[in-house]
Design goal:
The chain is globular. The chain is built from 24 helices and no strands. The chain folds into two domains: 452 residues, Growth Hormone, Chain: A, CATH 1.20.1250.20; 49 residues. By secondary structure, it is mainly alpha-helical. The longest helix has 33 residues. 76% of the residues lie in helices and 0% in strands. Helix 17 packs across helix 18. Its main location: membrane. It comes from Aspergillus cavernicola. This is General substrate transporter. Keywords: Membrane, Transmembrane, Transmembrane helix, Transport.
Length: 513
């Protein structure tokens, strides 16, 4: 454990490497701010007035108001699902770095249009989808880039920084909305400022990206070996002829060349996808990741995040300003425990234990929230206005859920999807999984308000609890531990029947960097 911490500090003290990681990790800002800052800005009076979302204007048609609000909230997610698929081709054609820059430009242009759509509902929906294309592409290329520059021992740390930045921005977004609600008049300038703020850090990262290199694994896959070796040396802060660089580069090159020998013809994305289904080893990896993405989204994770202010109010928090502060606290809890996950748990407990522990906490939280909403919460006809002990426990359960989500399936699918595939099929496999992630997230965000109505609130939590229970069984049996295993060794973990995967082990090579 002590050596692991020292290794992390050693890698993080290399200024150029740290600069590369932090710059690319800013690709998580669009997704994080949409879940925090933008989703909260929809509740500002200035936004409601401009886009006709005031409840007083829809007294005869509450369903239409709910649909209008859900469309505005969720259409960015729909665009992101398409963006993840589009990035599939761009990542191999343009490279990881150029794809990252292009995605930033698309997202920024969409964000600018949505901030100044001035009450035009159709233009806003277009801008949400267009900006979502860039945000979705960034969720593919950012973790992919980070995984391809990281050494095996600290790959979990490096890729998880993506989520640390995302959640820091998510929490900040709620507090920005709170500050705007109490310090600014409810004019269009209020929500425009709130929604435009993420353009500043992403713009700075975009400019800084012109000082960054392409990933060494991508360069090797394109037969640019000399460039790949030089980049690897620069990232590791070691001489190009050092034994450590030689060993890591040799393993990287051998894996790439072996896969080319198996498929000598230039591999298209469709050919690569067919290979993921025809090769039993690859097929197990692909469908495990798809199952992980499905379970992650349908446990309610992003549905709760997008509507957390309303969820706190249902649990007993009163007042819009108070619910925004509570939502910010929710974001901080997610950030703190994601940092704990990133800096210790992911490479100490491992991916598998974290996923199962997280699902267990989510399950417990959902069970109590279902009980509270169905039985313990005072009804509208009751003389009792609140059941404070039960309400406090419900609020605590929301935070317990945040802990479970943060140390488990909030981050692990991003990391798992970038590390379990060889270079040639990594892009197509991860892009398809992220597209599924976004389509499922769109569905969850879109239907969550309707689930609360049609399932009487408690039924939604019961549904999510059942998914958590199923996830514990499926991932408990099917998910192997990948901690410390080099990307080039992952195939050994997936040999044999899938139902023995839980006990698969690979000893990291001595001296593996």
């Amino acid at each position: 454990m002590r050596r692991s911490v020292l290794d992390k500090l050693r890698w993080s003290t290399r200024p150029f490497y740290a600069f590369v990681v932090l710059t690319i990790a800013c690709g998580s800002i669009p997704k994080g701010y949409d879940e925090g800052g933008y989703s909260a800005s929809v509740r500002l009076d200035s936004f409601k007035t401009d886009f006709n979302l005031l409840s007083s204007n829809w007294t005869q048609n509450r369903t239409e108001l709910a649909n209008r609000t859900a469309n505005i909230t969720s259409f960015n997610v729909l665009g992101a699902a398409l963006g993840a698929l589009i990035s599939l081709d761009l990542n191999d054609r343009l490279g990881r770095l150029r794809s990252w820059r292009l995605a930033c430009v698309v997202w920024a242009s969409g964000t600018f249009i949505q901030a100044f759509s001035s009450g035009i509902y159709g233009l806003l929906l277009f801008a949400r989808i267009w900006g979502g294309l860039g945000a979705g592409a960034l969720t593919v290329v950012t973790p992919l880039y980070l995984s391809e520059i990281a050494p095996a021992r600290t790959r979990g740390l490096v890729v998880s920084i993506y989520m640390v930045v995302l959640l820091a921005v998510l929490a900040l977004g709620f507090f920005i909305n709170y500050a705007a609600s109490i310090h600014m008049p409810p004019t269009p300038t209020q929500y425009r400022l709130v929604q435009s703020i993420p353009l500043i850090p992403v713009g700075a990262a975009f400019i800084a990206s012109f000082a960054l290199p392409e990933t060494p694994r991508y360069l090797v896959s394109q037969h640019r070996d000399d460039e790949g070796r030089n980049v690897l040396s620069r990232l590791r802060g070691k001489d190009i002829s050092s034994p450590e660089i030689e060993d890591e580069f040799r393993l990287m090159t051998i894996q790439s060349r072996l896969k080319e020998a198996e498929t000598p013809i230039s591999t298209s994305n469709w050919t690569a996808f067919k290979e993921t289904q025809s090769n039993s080893n690859y097929r197990q990896r692909f469908w495990l990741l798809m199952a992980m993405q499905t379970i992650a989204q349908w446990t309610g994770g992003n549905g709760i995040t997008y509507y957390v202010s309303s969820i706190f109010e249902a649990a007993g928090v009163t007042g819009n300003a108070t619910s925004l502060v509570s939502s910010g606290a929710y974001g901080i809890v997610k950030l703190v425990f994601t940092m704990a996950f990133t800096w210790g748990l992911i490479d100490y407990l491992g991916r598998r234990r974290c996923a199962l522990l997280g699902l267990s906490l989510q399950l417990a939280a959902h069970i109590y929230l279902a009980s509270y909403m169905g039985v313990l919460r005072p009804s509208s006809s009751s003389n009792e206005t609140t059941n404070k002990p039960a309400s406090d426990a419900a609020i605590a359960s929301i935070f317990i859920y945040a802990v479970g989500w943060s140390i488990g399936l909030c981050t692990i699918p991003y990391l798992y999807g970038t590390e379990i595939f060889p270079t040639r099929i990594r892009n197509v496999s991860y892009a398809v999984s992220m597209s599924a992630h976004w389509f499922f997230q769109f569905a969850v965000v879109r239907v969550t308000p309707n689930m609360f109505v049609s399932l009487h609130t408690w039924g939604a939590y019961l549904f999510w609890a059942i998914i958590c229970f199923i996830g514990l069984i499926v991932l408990g049996v099917w998910m192997p531990e990948t901690k410390g295993v080099a990307i080039e060794q992952m195939g050994e973990l997936f040999e044999g029947p899938w139902y023995f995967r839980w006990r698969a082990r690979i000893q990291p090579k001595e001296g593996d960097s």
